[in-house]
Write a structure and sequence with these properties.
Blueprint: E1 6-10, H1 13-30, E2 35-39, H2 45-53, E3 66-70, E4 72-74, H3 84-91, H4 113-128, E5 140-145, E6 170-173, E7 181-184, H5 186-189, E8 192-199, H6 205-212, E9 228-234, H7 235-238
Helix pairs in contact: 1-2, 2-3
Bound molecules: 6-phosphogluconic acid (6PG).
6-phosphogluconic acid binds next to loops.
Length: about 240
């Protein structure tokens, strides 16, 4: 991770979600013809999605410009409660006027996790208009990420071969979690104007401090981007004690 990311510290998790949601609406307003938002799974962003899909904020985003992607997904049907697509759909997508073709979900109806990964790589390349990433032209305007207790982010887990992948845009990760995962790789996640980590709760304090300390054994600490990294945290996750 680049040294000295911007850290925004909120009083509590609710305020953190509000600040992140408002920051996102501002970013969307600054966008040109398209605004691409790469979503995270996990429990922390759920409230952000609810706020973006809620009566107060949804009208502040021109959803006709928005394109939604997922940094990672569990290889379960979209109707499964563990699906990252379902979480974002229920919290936000169902409540906003985004054209269906601009919701770029990871297809979990593929025959295998690997096929799902390949299909998603092709979908991303199609949107981007190239199969190689130009450092001057980020794929995403914003990538949202979480931080797992073990330092994972997206579905990049400690010790996994996915961490070394530089060529494939999307890979399958089998045998780490009960269900296979599909995840974007570092070069793709990093191709973002802004990377926003959402981290809340005292349970994340120690691991966040290790990530900020640059412990490169932790996948989250190895995110690199030519854009900006911002951490939206609450006091419990950030304070010394
Ligand atoms: O699909 C997922 O689960 C993720 O994308 C994952 O990387 C998540 O962001 C972290 O595990 C933090 O999750 P919490 O926000 O629930 O702590």
């Amino acid at each position: 991770m680049i040294p000295g990311p911007f850290v925004d510290v909120a009083e509590n998790a609710e305020e953190m979600a509000e600040r992140a949601a408002i920051w996102l609406t501002t970013q969307a307003a600054l966008a040109g013809e398209r605004w691409s938002l790469n979503l995270s799974g996990g429990s922390t962003p759920k409230r952000v999605y609810e706020l973006l899909g809620g009566a107060e904020l949804r009208g502040r985003i021109d959803w006709r410009k928005a394109h939604l992607f997922w940094g990672d997904e569990r290889f379960v049907p979209h109707s499964n409660p563990d699906s990252n697509y379902k979480m974002a759909f229920d919290a936000m997508i169902a409540h906003v006027p985004i054209p269906a073709a601009q919701v770029h979900a990871i297809r979990t109806d593929a025959d295998s996790p690997q096929e799902a990964a390949d299909l998603y790589a092709a979908a991303l390349q199609d949107y981007y208009g190239s199969r190689s990433i130009d450092p001057e032209r980020p794929l995403f305007d914003v990538t949202l990420l979480g931080l797992g207790d073990d330092g994972h982010t997206a579905s990049l887990f400690p010790g996994s071969s996915a961490l070394e992948e530089r060529r494939a845009w999307v890979v399958s990760v089998v045998g780490v979690k009960p269900e296979p995962r599909i995840t974007q790789t570092y070069p793709v996640l990093g191709s973002s104007r802004n990377i926003l980590f959402l981290v809340a709760g005292a349970g994340k304090r120690e691991i966040l401090s290790c990530v900020l300390g640059g412990d490169l054994s932790l996948p989250a600490a190895r995110i690199e981007t030519a854009g900006a990294i911002r951490i939206f945290a609450d006091k419990a996750a950030i304070s010394a004690g």
